[in-house]
Amino acid sequence: MSRWQPFSLFMRKFFATCLILLSVVSLVSYAIWTEQRPAGHYLSDLRIRLAINEGEPSERGNLLGIEPVLFPTDYQNLDRLHRKLAAYLQQARDYGLINPKTVVVLPEHIGTWLFASGEKDQLYQAATVDEAMEWLSWSNPLQFVAAMLGAEGRNRMDDTHLRIKALTMARDYQA
């Protein structure tokens, strides 16, 4: 038996132990990172202007269409989104465009971006939608795997990304 053999066995065990410890530390760090959701401070642009005012509000009611200018960070926090939309409604009230029978119409996909609510800053700073979707996947790994298993349709990744946040999107949309 070579005198280096016990040392070699020791080194293999040492490196294996180090590799296991490094893996555990990496997984724990990643798990902690995925749970962190910093609440960034953001001042939304609330300067709103009336684009078109056709007709007059009547006693029988009126239809008010609002097309808000929203940015990704407006969806970061539900309260922030509510404040932004409330500013549009308040301006309409100030102009006398809202009465008890007014029906307010918003864009049909205004709730689609609710999937971004409560996500990491990197998602809002992404240069492309694809990059934002990658951040969504990496910061929600367990939900991503579960959503991927239930995904359907031609574009399974788009379906997966929406399924990750489907329950919270529905709750926030109805709030």
UniProtKB/TrEMBL annotation:
Organism of provenance: Pseudomonas syringae pv. antirrhini
Keyword Hydrolase: yes
Protein name: Hydrolase, carbon-nitrogen family
The keyword Hydrolase belongs to this UniProt entry's keyword annotation: yes
Organism classification: Bacteria, Pseudomonadati, Pseudomonadota, Gammaproteobacteria, Pseudomonadales
GO molecular function, one term: hydrolase activity
Keywords: Hydrolase
